[in-house]
Amino acid sequence: MIEGLVFYLFAAITVASGVMVVSSRNPVYSVLWLILAFFNAAGLFLLLGAEFLAMVLVIVYVGAVAVLFLFVVMLLDINYLRLREGFMQYLPVGALIGLILVVELLMVYGGWKFADDAPLSVASRTPDPTAISNTDALGRLLYTDYAFLFQAAGLVLLVAMVGTIMLTHRTRTGVRKQVIAKQNARTKESSVEIVKVTSGGGI
After folding, report:
1. What 8-state DSSP symbol labels residue 40?
2. What are the tens digits of pLDDT across the range 83-131?
3. Most buried pick, 27, 78, 189, 192, via CB within 10 A?
4. 12: pLDDT confidence band, cut at 50, 70 and 90?
5. How many CB atoms are closer than 10 A to CB 121?
6. How far is the CA of 12 from the CAs of 42, 85, 115, 164, 185, in angstroms?
């Protein structure tokens, strides 16, 4: 009974936070609502026994991504009136896309619900959760069955990181950059100039 009440509490707050994310007029408030939704989603993962996913959600998404969004939104000078322009113009397209997504979700749910082997998959025996931890099971799955895909995902992230660094450090005219060799080669004679100023004369 208590677990059911906690589940409905987390689920209701998550859904309400998601609605507030897309309906808030201020982007800063939207990011704060998003952080609240992440915390409650982590609570739902804990109820499901997926403590590793809950910690990843809190550490990665709340501690890094959402906070980064918050600082970017707060530092940028965003014209909120300009952002709201054309809302009614694109509303039919957005409603059509949302309707398509709802239909796809209903098709997936109906295909699973009315499939011939659905009762067998529901009644199949699940492993004992006390025999192996969630993190251990996820690690075995990633580094055995999906080892090559896991390495490929890491390679894609590495290429993206290298590309970002190369774009940042490309040669651009009119941009001053720090040159360590020139700084180390500086001497007192080339860096310091002693100027004798007469009293009351100024520089």
Report:
1. H
2. 666 667 778 888 899 899 999 988 888 777 776 766 666 555 555 656 6
3. 27
4. very high
5. 9
6. 14, 31, 30, 39, 64
Burial bucket for residue 42 (CB in 10 Å: 0-12, 13-18, 19+)? buried
Question: Could you give the CA distance from residue 125 to residue 127 in angstroms, rounded to a whole number?
Answer: 7
**Encoding tokens for residue 101?**
């997504």
Tally of CA atoms within 13 A in the half-sphere of 95 that contains its CB = 6
Q: Can you read off the two tokens belonging to residue 69?
A: 């969004």
Which tokens go with 68? 């980064």
Q: How much is the pLDDT for 114?
A: 72
Average pLDDT taken over every residue of the chain: 81
What's the whole-model pTM score? 0.57
**Cα atoms in the 13 Å half-sphere on the side-chain side of 156:** 6
Rounded to whole angstroms, the Cα distance separating 68 from 66 reads 5
Percentage of the residues of the chain whose pLDDT score is greater than 70: 83
- Residue 190 identity (one-letter amino acid): S
Q: Is 78 left (phi over 0), alpha (psi -120 to 50) or beta?
A: beta
